[in-house]
Amino acid sequence: MCGPRCTTRSAAARSTARSSRGTRSAVRSSPVPARPCRTSARGRTERVAATRNTISGGLFLSAVIQGHTVTVQLPPQVTPALSGAPPRTEAFTGRDDELSTLLGLLDPARDTGAGTRAEPDRPRAALVTGLGGAGKTELALQAAHLARERGWFPGGVLFTDLRGYADLPCHCDVPSHAEQHGRDERPNHDQAAQGRQRGARPGEVLGELLRALGLDPERVPPGTQDRSRLFATVLDAYAEQGRPILLVLDNASSAEQVRPLLPGTGKALITSRHTLDVGARLLDLGMLAPGAAVELLARALRLALGDADTRVAREPAAAADIAGLCAGLPLAVRIVAALLAADPARPLRAMAEDLEEAATRLDELSYEDRGVRAAFELSYRHLEAEEARMFRLMTAAPGPDLSVETAAVVADRGPRDARRLLEALHRAHLVERGGAYGRWRMHDLVRLYAEERARDQAGPDRHEEACDRLLDHCCARARAAGAWLSLPEAQARRETQARQEAQLQRESQARREEFASREEAVTWLDAEGRTLVAAVTAAAGRGDRARSHALAVDLAPYFEFRQRTGEWITTALAAVDAAGRLGHHAELAAAMTLGNAYRLARRYDESAAQLRRALSLARDDRARSPVLHNLGLTYLRMGALAKAEACHRRDRRICALAGDLRGRAQAAVALGDALRARRRHPEAAKVLTEAVTLLQRLDGLGLGNRTALMHARVNLALTYLAGRPDRTPTYILWQLCAALAAARDLDDRHAQALIFMNLSTAYRNRCAACHGPSALAWGRRAVTLFEELGDSYHRARALTALGLAAGPEEARRSLAEALSIFEDLGAGRECREVRALSRTDRTEPPRREACTADESEQVRDWVDDLPHAVLRGDDERLGDVLIPGCNIG
């Protein structure tokens, strides 16, 4: 018996074929759409004869050929080609979700609704994309084998390697002689594209597939379109006979290579390094998670050597390091496993140490005919010249990722062109999208490969010029962005009032050209922060001391604003190293920057040493003023209160003599804080009130500093809370809420957390019976926010405040946690304070009957809601009532 047959005939032969229809049994015809016309070699449009494929299910003793109609009998059994998909590996792991997605697409029940909800409009094909070596082929094979085992494709699995990335000459590197002749010679893109042989041609592949399906080679039509229609018809024939076939198209490089091969109604799995537009469900395959990479290493070793190999279990840390150095790339992990299997005595730690050297890592990741470098090379060879140039020049940008803006700078192209090139590299899976939209990054191993190519083409690409462009860009943008955070403080502390106004006008004009607002500047700094830190180090590595120093100093206001201590210290140390040959002004700025960074890190002795050095480098009062201010802040944190007061008094005198109103106000804020620490509360309140008044006056003139005014309000509130711990007047809550409004507008989350903590204390002091819930709520918010910010010290302080506001059980937990943190930080004074509070016999907060505030319910509700209203943006609530002043003395 023979199976179903496939008939292909031309429209011109239909009348001849009609005479033979009576000899056929159960013939069913269905037309297949064809392109209606084509263009001849002479440019004329010609009608293309339609091709009709007919399937019949009758019985035939032999092939029938009549007229121009060809009847092909299909084989009754599954041929070896249909069951000859490459084997799957037993070491497969870490892709459960992706495998489930593919199986869901292949499940025939999803098409018919049998056993589950039908999805008739879902794609018939899936495209698995990813970086070379990501495991695309293995995932497709795993899905194909499982689908066959479940009986979904009794006709078999038809697998073909399209060789889309094989044997392609490289047209994307610039000839080395271009630089020698002083010209920017680049290959012609059209000629390069014409010279590319992108793997197997669709017509050839269709011929092979049709022969694999059992068709007589002599009956296979010559044209690609005719072969495509016949192939689809044959697959339909198998499906109609209850023997659907799964098509696996591996290693495709272009949509043109795939489209003629796709079945009309059948299922197909496609793998490619490029994202192709073929109407398929996209599945972008990422890297393995660290744990899955370790498991892959263990399984591959067990598969090769059996259960006797226990190196992964014996050396888990080394196994984790290997997985990290392979950056989750399955190919790299498998190569390491092969190397380890070839040398069973080799410890994993020795393997990890061999991989640690970045310069030779790609050399290590090679075994026999497999190599990570070779896998990347195939993708690189498919790039156009401009795409390859962008790929290489991306390595000029330091840091873990880069923006379109940065890419445009290094490539010396416009933002639109840069975005287009990055998207092309992303489609080729040579770059990945970063953590935020508009940012791009390279896989660690891909970057190593890109750096190799960049070194090879450094001359033609003018790589050093790209580095210079980027550093100039970073310095200019960081200076402009930092101005929104540091001005008017920085300039106001160095210039007389008249010169300051002129300078501020010039600076404000410059920064408006760069950034339209403070918010825009901070957003840019947040996005580019890690790149800027890496740029400081990169400039130092190139011997570019001036740029390294300038960028580090200009970033200081941002690091202080965002409390990014580690990065601040890193860049400040680079500034100190660079300043040695740049003169005493550079040395002073670097020493003060590092001293301030150490203070933020609570390394007070080192901070004081750097700031004293800066003071010795200052040659006039204008330079001494900011150093005295910062040195006084460090002395205050050290507990050297008399020295702190002396520094701030001296600073205030210098500012007063120079007519520096802003500097005088800032010095007053710091002096008031020092006086409060010395428990001279009436004097502190007087100085801080003067500072608030002066800053408000400057703000009315458009010369104010919201950050300084915010700190002045908080210090004034703290002074009153310390001087009158038994009662908190509305005036103090108002000052805290006004400061909270400024912190909200400035997006200063650290200041917000500090104010939350102080609100907790203020509400508790006002009346624990009436405002106990508010004290508890703000204490908890402070703890949470400090935890989000990663500030352990202030989190412990907030826990201490919470311990005073909470009930017995929560208080014990909060104080115990605070003590543990302070002990870890080595904060002796704070430890003693918490231990003393822990020994206090705490009871439940007073009941409402014990109210001491003597306030109406309306006032109580207004006071409780005031900070909430501020956070909602309802600043008008701050002006609802007339707030009287306070008197501590």
TrEMBL record:
Segments of skewed composition (Basic and acidic residues): 177-189
Pfam families: AAA_16, TPR_12
Region (Disordered): 1-45, 177-201, 837-856
Keyword Nucleotidyltransferase annotated: no
Domain annotation Orc1-like AAA ATPase: ranges: 92-253
Listed SUPFAM superfamilies: P-loop containing nucleoside triphosphate hydrolases, TPR-like
Keyword Transit peptide: no
Keywords, ordered alphabetically: TPR repeat
Residue ranges crossing the lipid bilayer per the database entry: none
Highest rank taxon of the organism: Bacteria
Stretches with biased composition (Low complexity): 1-30
Residue stretches of each TPR repeat: 588-621
UniProt xrefs under PANTHER family: HTH-TYPE TRANSCRIPTIONAL REGULATOR RV0890C-RELATED, REGULATOR-RELATED
Designated name of the protein: Tetratricopeptide repeat protein
Phylogenetic lineage: Bacteria, Bacillati, Actinomycetota, Actinomycetes, Streptosporangiales
